[in-house]
Amino acid sequence: MNKGRIAAKAALWVICLAPAARLGWGALHPETNLLGVNPVQYLLWAFGWWALLWLTLTLAITPLRLASSWTWLARFQRPLGLFAFAYAVLHFLTYALLDQAGAWGQIPGDLVKRPFIVIGMLTLLILLALAITSTKGWQKRLKRNWKRLHRLVYLAAILSVIHFAWKEKVGWKEPRVLVFAGAVALLLLTRLFLAGPRGQQRRDLGKEHG
Question: Would you kindly state where each structural domain of the chain is located, as residue ranges?
Fold first, then answer.
């Protein structure tokens, strides 16, 4: 691995870990008021927001790579996807351990009262499956089914946006919700276009002139 790749991966790790480090510092030092008047709710929102952002950026890798023939972008897809999963886990743990104060028995009732949590749980399970099977070993085991399984990342992104919109009090009127919804929709449509015959022609033309 050359120095450029090492530097790029190191930069990615620093960028992705920085929000968690900041939130962790705020949780350990409440006197700074970094997390506002309701730290638990802020942590719950922030971890979910960052998970959705990393997931959206993960989706952007393939369209950018197919449109530009920048094959090196593929190296960042798995780390971004794993960071999206990690932040989703932190989002869930904040809910289960802090928001619910560890009262696991209350969670089933909460699922009934707040169905958006069911959407969030389903999203987390999809991301868990994708994280476990993201290695080269699983890619060899699953063969063609690996790509089929990992297309579920688009479903996870859609469910994440729904979860985020449902959680926000103003729902789809929230600008951040609209931005994520528009970005996910655009990336999905772009991916479908680039995967088709016209997209193949565009990629072949780019290689000829590259």
Answer: 38-209
